[in-house]
Design brief:
The longest helix has 43 residues. The protein has seven helices and no strands. It is 78% helix and 0% strand. The protein is mainly alpha-helical.
Length: 311
């Protein structure tokens, strides 16, 4: 966009920071609700499923812990970002590096590091939830070779997601480190490009994993229609896969739109701060809650048969 003078540019930046400030506060409230929900599911998983042994229950507990930690970091990040955006709006949109107050600059870097670590936990949590869904489908005593192969594939995809997420966000942390050591920004462009394409590969991998788990769970539920009680538990697993599909596709869509097709002038639009919680974090919480409800029968030998077999 073309501006007649510098004042118009700063005024536009100030307006964006002011809107972002309000959206960050709303996001902090939504993350706090997600955190409470994550704590609740985590407590229920460790107390109500205490006598339930098995791989699926273990993965479910790990998913709850990772999601709760992700919500904690995002809540702290939002709490730090709100005063920074307010300060930026007050100073007509001057960037964090231009703020004279050393305390605010240190806060901005703390927010950047915490946000990156939170994104890493977010990606790992999604991968582990997908593994949990496939593991839930494989709780039957008579598991076919198809489900065994699907379980192996889910573990491989999870390992790839962990490695790619670590490499992706490691690139961003390395970029932060170099910036704080006075390396010129133009020298960091290759690192930023590598980060964006690595992040895109990670988002595509997680979306493919969500599609895979949804297809597997739907195949299982189609074979359990003759046992209504078992079919109900299987449907809960399917719905959790659908929620994970919504979460991963939303993240992939906005990444492609605002990082590759048409980058926004001042970063991503402010409303995405709230929309990210509603369409990304909350579906993950919903998937965990549905998996917990389905897990009530995972430890019961008679109810394990609901999963059927996948040829």
């Amino acid at each position: 966009m073309y501006y007649d003078n510098e004042d118009d540019y700063f005024e536009r930046w100030r307006q964006h920071a002011s809107i972002l400030y309000r959206n960050v506060i709303a996001a902090a409230v939504l993350y706090s609700l997600a955190f409470v929900g994550g704590i609740a599911v985590c407590i229920f998983a460790f107390t109500k499923l205490r006598g339930h042994n098995g791989c699926a229950v273990s993965w479910l507990k790990a998913s709850c812990i990772l999601f709760t930690l992700y919500c904690v970091l995002e809540l702290i990040t939002s709490a730090i970002a709100a005063p920074l955006e307010h300060e930026e709006a007050q100073y007509y949109g001057r960037g964090y590096a231009n703020i004279d107050n050393d305390g605010l600059e240190n806060l901005s870097w703390a927010q950047a590091y915490l946000s990156t670590i939170g994104e890493w936990l977010h990606a790992i949590a999604k991968a582990v939830i997908c593994i949990t869904i496939v593991a839930a489908c494989a709780t039957s005593d008579r598991v076919g070779r198809g489900l065994r192969a699907c379980s192996a594939v889910s573990y491989v995809v999870g390992a790839l997601a962990f490695a790619l997420a670590t490499a992706t966000f490691g690139l961003m942390l390395r970029r932060f480190y170099l910036v704080t050591h006075n390396v010129e920004y133009y020298q960091l462009n290759p690192l930023l490009v590598a980060y964006l394409y690595s992040y895109l590969a990670l988002a595509c991998l997680l979306a493919a994993a969500a599609i895979f788990t949804t297809v597997v769970s739907m195949s299982v539920v189609s074979k359990s229609m003759h046992t209504p009680a078992h079919s109900k538990s299987a449907k809960l697993v399917v719905f959790s896969g659908v929620l994970m599909l919504l979460s991963t596709l939303f993240r992939l869509a906005w990444l492609v739109r605002y990082a590759f097709i048409a980058p926004a002038e001042f970063g991503t639009p402010a409303y995405l701060t709230v929309l990210e919680v509603i369409l990304d974090a909350w579906p993950m919480l919903g998937a965990l809650a549905l998996l917990f409800l389905s897990a009530q029968g995972w430890g019961d030998k008679s109810s394990k048969q609901y999963t059927g077999t996948v040829a």
